[in-house]
Known about the structure:
By secondary structure, the protein is mainly β. The protein has one helix and eleven strands. Strands 6-3-9-10-11 form a five-stranded antiparallel sheet, with no helix packed on it. A three-stranded antiparallel sheet has the order 1-2-7, with helices on one face. Strands 4-5-8 form a three-stranded antiparallel sheet, with helices on one face. The longest helix is centred in the middle third of the chain and has 9 residues.
Amino acid sequence: MPIVALRLASGERRLGESLTLEFQSLRNIGNGPAFNIDVTPIQKAPFEVRFNPIRLLEPKDSQRLEYTVLQDALASGFSKMSVWLESVIETGRLGSEIAISVSYSDASGKRYRSDHVIRFDAAARTVTTAFKDHREI
Length: 137
């Protein structure tokens, strides 16, 4: 059975440096391949982060998250750049805790969902992701 984990996290940061998302990926930590992987959008007006679907993720493989950041439902020249997402997170515009889900299928067509919480610590200026749950849907 596949289990897909989201990892959105900052790396080491020196004093005075801007937030940098060092890890932006999905990883299949299960034993079977995951198909038709969708990540729920992050929505907090006026921002929305839409993630591109991934067709296949083999066991133990990782794939970089691709996304588009919209402001007032509009894309800009920075919409697909991590610097824009980093800026939106660092300024607290998405909040300090963001619930996000990943849904996918196994080889037999069963659908699963893994739930995560992305946390932004404003004092430490760090981003971490916690894996919460995995279940068949």
